[in-house]
């Protein structure tokens, strides 16, 4: 019997019948999606934009989200874009935390009641009912119609303003790109001229300086002179001078005329030279030098003084106004859409509100049959909830939503997700195959013998139970993520991989990036800022002791954990310990650190929970949102401080599946935002992954291997040991900028608080030219030497690569000061403070640095 849901029907039927399954990827025009994205009040990376395009264009899409890369942020953007596309979205997950994060983020932009939250608790139902009743009050009256007209007028007004600002911002960005291209061209032309000038000086032994060597800026008929001089050069090589009778008088006079003309036209001083092969070579090289100078002067004329700076400042103001307009627009549009639809649907919404009063399944089913849920979902297009609660709120109706999104998909099997997918016409699967999968979820269990029996009864004529395993169809073993990424299944899933990591401090996140996502090119660590890099964020504590064979608990680990928690909870150690205090914690609401305790052993987790109940009150634990669990429990959750207890001694007799499972370690080591304690009794020789983790932070342990494979330094610390490397300066220009930055430090950093670094790597970008860091207040800024194209090798233009690079840095929180190349050269000569214009520019540069560094 076929599904009423066409997509599910062709998907499952095609896989069972070993057929190629055509997946549509043209459901919405890309231009409409891009327009919706342009209205979003959310900043998105290129990969996040691609994820939105895939989700709306394709029947099936996949968003791979490594830890901390903004899965919830992307889902929020996806749901908000539905408002502009006039679509309906249902987002579901097994994890309540995942649903709560999305709910909070959406309501941040739409206000309370901006979506329908499918919460099973009585208090949550009452809250939803109160919102619905407030909306329905007076919905069918003339006053409501007048309000809708007023809202429509406001939407049109705000939309017009946003569209105008979008056009202005796009025009400014285009102008900046053109300016950058002109600046880059000037850089190339000037560098070419400087190289030719140096070669000319070396070849002919001429001292070049601005006072003694001036070039013209216009040479008429350069090809004529090049041909004439080349021919004379050949004559002088082949024939003797005229006094020996080898050159005719006519030829000699011609040579003199050309030499004199060259002197007059491009100021080559050739009248002082006697015709000879060397003199002709001089003239030819001088001509090429003059032409290079001419190109440089022409190019400079297209680079307007301070043009880019002014356009960037104007762009920043316009982008601020645009952000305010987008924030207002999405609220106005959503409120108007709800009120407009309520004019026709308020009776169904009222019935839905009354249905929420009931808990008995048969009464809920009866109530659902009297409601037009398509009218309700048209009125309220955004719904979120845990999968287990769907049946209490929504009927089993096909394609009730335009898009169904499932988060933490690696822990959801096919049978569980079908009720949600049945209600949608598109599916978007969000998860990460490198984190814990279905076996770790602990949410669905099925006897495999029983599963095989059921399978053979229903599908043996189509596909065997063994083949079902290969196609990720077994409910007991495969998640929906396994199913849509299975290469044996003949359908294509559009995939976008998120790669910007915002959650954890970079020292912590660098282990995740280097050890679990290296094949994907690693993660962009967006907190790679000087203010974070000197913070201590890891502490390994070896406590000795043995794991009890009966209870599977390392008691010394638990006691050390309790001691740390006493210091944190009773004595607010996070305000006294310098390593923790540096993270900005305080003993007041909103600034206390949240705390998580991860145990790699289930028995030890249970024992810890018992010990904490004995030591602390519920209020004390709640004040820090303290959570105790295994890595499986923590997937989808994070805390400011994580305390890991490995449950290991040094004997090496324990199952490697617990502490050597890359997925478990990936989850466990990526939960901390600020600080991680790792407590262990000892380290077995076979614990290779754990050893790599400890060594990443420079930690050692007592039972070192006999071969002396000890600590070889900390990759996490050495990676962020930013230094100043004079030998890495790449040009005369960069050297001179460096000199003036040092003068700035001498002038404004007399107490030694200003530090200068160069060739700094950050946010997955090529190196920043210079970084200034104010140790007194933690402020920093990047100094970018514009014009050099040392970071694009992918075919993009200089301006495109430059704009994207700066956008990434600013999204990460960098303040960027641009040093334009054209300010530093006049007629091919490097400026100094004796030049009035250059002196004025330096004062402006220093003021901009002072502002950004809060001096």
Please tell me the CATH architecture of the largest domain by its name: 3-Layer(aba) Sandwich
Strands across the major sheet, in which order?
A: 3-4-2-5-6-1-7
What name goes with the CATH superfamily of the largest domain? P-loop containing nucleotide triphosphate hydrolases
Tell me the structural class.
alpha/beta
Radius of gyration: 35 Å
Shape: globular
Overall mean pLDDT: 87
The structural domain count equals 4
Total strand count, please?
20
What keywords describe this structure?
alpha/beta; 855 residues; 5-stranded parallel sheet; 7-stranded parallel sheet; globular; Rossmann fold; 4 domains
Tell me what the structure shows.
With 855 residues, this protein is an alpha/beta fold. The protein folds into four domains: 1-114 and 382-500, Rossmann fold (3-Layer(aba) Sandwich), CATH 3.40.50.300; 211-301; 529-719, 3-Layer(aba) Sandwich (Rossmann fold), CATH 3.40.50; 726-852. It has 33 helices and 20 strands. The strands form five sheets. Strands 3-4-2-5-6-1-7 form a seven-stranded parallel β-sheet, with helices on both faces. It has a five-stranded parallel β-sheet with strand order 10-14-13-11-12. α15 links the parallel β5 and β6. The model is unreliable at 706-711 (pLDDT under 50).
């Amino acid at each position: 019997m076929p599904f009423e849901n066409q997509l599910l029907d062709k998907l499952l039927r095609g896989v069972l019948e070993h057929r190629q399954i055509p997946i549509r990827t043209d459901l919405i025009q890309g231009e409409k999606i891009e327009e919706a994205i342009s209205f979003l009040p959310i900043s998105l990376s290129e990969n996040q934009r691609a994820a939105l395009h895939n989700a709306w264009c394709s029947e099936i899409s996949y968003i791979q989200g490594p830890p901390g890369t903004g899965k919830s942020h992307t889902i929020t953007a996806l749901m908000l874009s539905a408002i502009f596309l006039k679509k309906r979205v249902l987002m579901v997950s097994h994890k309540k935390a995942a649903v709560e994060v999305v709910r909070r983020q959406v309501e941040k932009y739409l206000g309370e009641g901006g979506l329908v939250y499918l919460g099973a608790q009585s208090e949550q139902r009452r809250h939803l009912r109160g919102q619905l009743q407030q909306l329905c009050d007076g919905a069918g009256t003339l006053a409501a119609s007048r309000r809708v007209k007023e809202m429509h007028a406001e939407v049109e007004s705000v939309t017009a303003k946003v569209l105008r600002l979008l056009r202005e911002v796009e025009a400014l960005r285009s102008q900046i790109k053109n300016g950058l291209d002109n600046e880059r061209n000037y850089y190339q032309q000037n560098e070419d001229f400087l190289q030719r000038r140096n070669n000319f000086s070396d070849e002919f032994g001429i001292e070049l300086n601005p006072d003694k060597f001036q070039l013209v800026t216009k040479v008429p008929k350069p090809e004529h002179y090049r041909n004439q001089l080349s021919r004379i050069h050949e004559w002088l090589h082949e024939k003797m001078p005229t006094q020996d009778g080898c050159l005719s008088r006519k030829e000699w006079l011609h040579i003199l005329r050309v030499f004199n003309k060259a002197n007059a036209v491009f100021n080559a001083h050739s009248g002082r030279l006697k015709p000879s092969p060397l003199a002709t070579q001089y003239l030819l090289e001088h001509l090429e030098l003059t032409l290079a100078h001419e190109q440089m002067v022409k190019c400079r004329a297209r680079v307007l003084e301070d043009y880019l700076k002014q356009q960037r400042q104007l762009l920043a103001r316009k982008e601020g106004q645009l952000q305010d307009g987008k924030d207002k627009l999405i609220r106005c549009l959503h409120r108007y859409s709800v009120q407009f639809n309520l004019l026709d649907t308020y009776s169904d919404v009222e019935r839905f509100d009354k249905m929420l009063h009931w808990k008995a399944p048969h009464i809920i089913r009866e109530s659902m049959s009297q409601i037009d849920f398509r009218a309700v979902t048209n009125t309220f297009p955004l719904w979120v909830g845990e999968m287990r609660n769907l049946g209490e709120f929504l009927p089993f109706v096909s394609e009730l939503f335009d898009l169904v999104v499932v988060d933490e998909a690696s822990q959801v099997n096919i049978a569980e997700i079908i009720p949600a997918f049945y209600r949608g016409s598109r599916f978007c699967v969000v998860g990460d195959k490198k984190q814990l999968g279905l076996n770790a979820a602990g949410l669905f269990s099925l006897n495999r013998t029983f599963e095989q029996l059921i399978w053979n009864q229903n599908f043996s004529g189509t596909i065997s139970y063994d083949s079902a395993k290969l196609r990720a169809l077994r409910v007991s073993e495969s998640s929906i993520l396994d199913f849509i990424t299975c290469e044996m299944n003949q359908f294509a899933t559009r995939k976008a991989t998120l790669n910007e990591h915002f959650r954890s401090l970079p020292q912590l996140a660098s282990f995740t990036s280097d050890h679990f996502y290296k094949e994907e090119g690693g993660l962009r660590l967006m907190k790679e800022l000087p203010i974070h890099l000197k913070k201590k964020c890891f502490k390994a504590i070896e406590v000795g002791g043995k794991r009890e064979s009966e209870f599977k608990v390392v008691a010394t680990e638990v006691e050390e954990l309790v001691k740390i928690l006493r210091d944190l909870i009773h004595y607010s150690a996070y305000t006294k310990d310098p390593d923790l205090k540096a993270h900005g914690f305080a003993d007041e609401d909103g600034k206390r650190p949240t705390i998580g305790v991860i145990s790699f052993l289930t028995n030890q987790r249970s024992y810890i929970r018992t010990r904490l109940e004995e030591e602390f009150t519920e209020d004390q634990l709640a004040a820090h949102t303290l959570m105790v669990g295994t890595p499986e429990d923590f997937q989808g959750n994070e805390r400011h401080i994580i305390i890991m207890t490995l449950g290991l001694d040094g004997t090496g007799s324990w199952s490697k599946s617990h502490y050597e499972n890359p997925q478990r370690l990936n989850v466990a080591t990526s939960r901390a935002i600020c600080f991680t304690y790792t407590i262990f009794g000892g380290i077995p020789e076979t614990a290779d992954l754990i050893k790599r983790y400890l060594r990443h932070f420079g930690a050692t342990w007592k039972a070192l291997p006999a071969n002396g494979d000890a600590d070889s330094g900390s990759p996490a610390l050495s990676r962020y040991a930013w230094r100043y490397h004079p030998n890495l300066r790449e040009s005369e220009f960069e050297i001179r900028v460096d000199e003036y930055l040092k003068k700035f430090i001498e002038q404004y950093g007399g107490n030694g608080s200003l530090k200068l670094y160069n060739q700094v790597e950050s946010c997955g970008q090529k190196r920043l030219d210079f970084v200034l860091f104010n140790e007194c207040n933690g402020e920093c800024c990047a100094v970018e030497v514009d014009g050099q194209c040392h970071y694009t090798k992918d075919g993009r233009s200089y301006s495109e690569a430059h704009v994207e690079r700066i956008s990434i840095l600013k999204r990460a929180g960098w303040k960027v000061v641009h040093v334009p190349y054209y300010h530093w050269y006049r007629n091919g000569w490097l400026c100094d403070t004796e030049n009035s214009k250059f002196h004025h520019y330096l004062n402006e540069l220093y003021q901009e640095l002072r502002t950004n560094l809060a001096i």
